[in-house]
Amino acid sequence: MASQRDIRRRIASVQNTRKITKAMEMVAAARLRRAQQRIEATRPYALNMLEFIGQLVRYIQVDLTDYPLLKEHKDIKRVAVIALTADRGMAGAFNSNIMRRALDRVDTYAAQGVASDLVLLGRKGYTTARFQGYRVDKAYLDVTERTAFLEAQAIADGTIRRYTSESVDRVHLVYNRFKSPMEQYVTDQVILPIQEELTSLYTPADAGEHMDFLFEPSPEAVLADLLPSYIEISVYRAILEGMASEHGARMTAMRAASEAATEMIDDLTLAMNRVRQASITQEILEVVAGADALSG
Q1: Report field, pTM of the whole predicted structure over 0.70
Q2: Cα–Cα distance measured from residue 68 to residue 165, given in angstroms and rounded to the nearest whole number
Q3: Which CATH fold would you assign to the domain 30-252?
Q4: Which of 5, 48, 106, 258 is most buried (most C-beta within 10 Å)?
Q5: What is the full per-residue pLDDT of the chain (296 aa) written as tens digits?
């Protein structure tokens, strides 16, 4: 049985750990509030842009296959899977859930004879993929909130360039969609071709319903400029969703760790009291036995 001194040391160690988890929970909560504000500002912009693109496609009665980013490739020979993870851990199953979905997607395509290029954002995803033996085509590490848009532009530009040159035939974006600090959903979204997202907005039946607009330059040129911007904002929005999900997952994980530490301290305190009680009882028995020996 452990001595009182050993148990006191363990209690002190757990108390120090609880201080750290409490501090990390507070930091994650503060960062989460800022990330939520950025998501609330970005979501309407991305959705309205997609809606406008759909209206513009309907207005000019464009053939979707005339635009490389709208054109769906008939033969799927190679795909790109972009997984957005975090650079740090201690966030529960946040990173593992994303990588499990992304690697399952790679394995599914491999079973169909389709090659995959794995593009990763975040150190945790990179180390997981390398540890499990997957080839990483491109990795973006140490991404902070300050450089998130620059990284989104780099990812989007590289993806657009490879899709238009037909180096890849489909692009998946795997990330955690933020709902609340307790709820995040792993999302597997096809961002290229954009045609799949326009399906619900574009219907040939109402293609003849026009409104009078003046475009400068032409509506076709406006559409061609909007499509790459939409890919950029889609990736940027996904990064922001992932950051908010990461902070929410870390806050929840640190809160659970603090509660577990409190329970452990209570159990250790109870064990220490039992050891002390047993020690006192043993001393009393020794005194009584000594008294009996003297009286005898």
Answers
A1: yes
A2: 9
A3: Pyruvate Kinase; Chain: A, domain 1 (3.40.1380)
A4: 106
A5: 678 888 889 999 999 999 999 999 999 998 898 888 888 888 888 888 878 887 777 777 767 677 888 888 889 999 999 999 999 888 888 999 999 999 999 999 999 999 999 999 999 999 999 999 999 999 998 887 677 888 899 999 999 999 999 999 999 999 999 888 788 899 999 999 886 566 555 444 444 455 566 777 877 888 888 889 889 998 999 999 999 999 999 999 999 999 999 999 999 999 888 888 888 888 887 777 777 777 75
Residues 6+ apart with CB under 8 A from 187: 173, 174, 175, 176, 177, 238
Amino acid letter at 81? V
Cβ–Cβ < 8 Å for 140, 151: yes
Amino acid at residue number 113 = G
Say if strands 170-180 and 183-192 run parallel, antiparallel, or are unpaired: antiparallel
In the chain, alpha helices (H) = 4-60, 94-111, 123-131, 148-164, 195-198, 219-295
Q: In degrees, to the nearest 5, what angle opens at C-alpha 233 toward C-alphas 223 and 86? A: 155
CA dist 69 and 229 (Å) reads 11
Going across the sheet that includes 138-140, the strands are 138-140, 115-121, 78-84, 170-180, 183-192
Instruction: Kindly list the domain boundaries of the chain, sorted by start residue.
Output: 4-21+254-295, 30-252
Neighbours of 138 (CB within 10 A): 15
How far is the C-alpha of 134 from the C-alpha of 125, rounded, in Å?
11
| CA max distance for the chain | 118
Structure tokens at 118: 């794995």
